[in-house]
Amino acid sequence: MFRSEILAERMHDVIEAARAIVNEARISLQERGLELKAINSASVAMVSLRIDASAFELYQVTPGEIGIDLVRLEDALSSAGKSELVKMELLEDERKLKIRIGSLSYTLGLIDPGTLQREPKIPELDLPASVTIPGAELRRAIKASELVSDHVVLGVRDDVFYMDARGDVDTLSFTMPSSELLDMKPGEARSMFSLEYLSAMSRVFGRAPAVKLEIGIDYPLQISFWLNEAHVSYLLAPRIEEE
To answer: Do 108 and 141 have their domain in common?
Structure first.
């Protein structure tokens, strides 16, 4: 059993955050809230997110798991205004999710969770450096980097966070000292990452007031932030720099 009511903006944040990585996913229905963990088909990027039961206007659940097409769910939610209530009910016998938005009613067929990729185990990383930066500022730097390259180096040097993008002809450099960051843990860190994935993620975390980046040397990048009532964490594998 699953029945809920939630502001459309909150639910849209959750779906958009997951859609940056995957188009289909298992959603874990827990008494404490909804949880989702998924890895993309190339095993390069992971997403882990949760939205607590307290974020819902109504939340009734029998713990379980459903598989859903996130693209179709996002399409259904697109008709809702930010402050509208989205009402969802699981029709277990029909393996469908009923969604009501005002006078509109959708019924989405669910996916057998057993046919989807297993929920990944999120590794526990103890990375040497971290910075916390406004999401809009980080999004701006990523968009600028895309103008010159398809990859970017993120690192920490002394008390400065930096991003370097180098193309065949052009280069771009972004630096921010600790005095301008929201928070910082200095440490030796430098890794290269694909801008394709970072750009998709930044469309989500660009709206977050604070984004925490945890970085190492040729280690995955861990990105975590709150977006309204949803907590989101991304993990992105590094690209190996050519000698």
So the answer is: no
For residues 203 and 227, membership in a common domain is answered with yes
Q: Are strands 2-7 and 58-61 parallel, antiparallel or unpaired?
A: antiparallel
Written as tens digits, the pLDDT of the chain (243 aa) is: 999 999 999 999 999 999 999 999 999 999 999 999 999 988 999 999 999 999 999 999 999 999 999 999 999 998 888 889 999 999 988 899 999 999 999 999 999 998 888 888 888 889 999 999 999 999 999 999 999 999 999 999 999 999 999 998 899 999 999 999 999 999 999 999 999 999 999 999 999 999 999 999 999 999 999 998 899 999 999 987 654
Sheet of 33-39, strands arranged across: 64-69, 24-30, 33-39, 45-52, 230-236, 221-227, 211-215, 129-133, 183-185
Query: Beta 183-185 vs 189-194: how paired, if at all?
Result: unpaired
Residues facing residue 45 across a β-bridge: 236
Q: Is the residue at 123 inside a domain?
A: no
Half-sphere exposure of 182 (CA within 13 A, CB side): 14
Rounded distance between C-alpha atoms, residue 8 and residue 148, angstroms: 36
CATH number of the domain at 49, please.
Answer: 3.70.10.10
> 84 and 135 share a domain?
no
Number of structural domains found in the chain: 2
Residue 27 lies in a domain: yes
Length of the chain: 243
pTM (global) more than 0.85? yes
Range of the domain at 218: 129-236
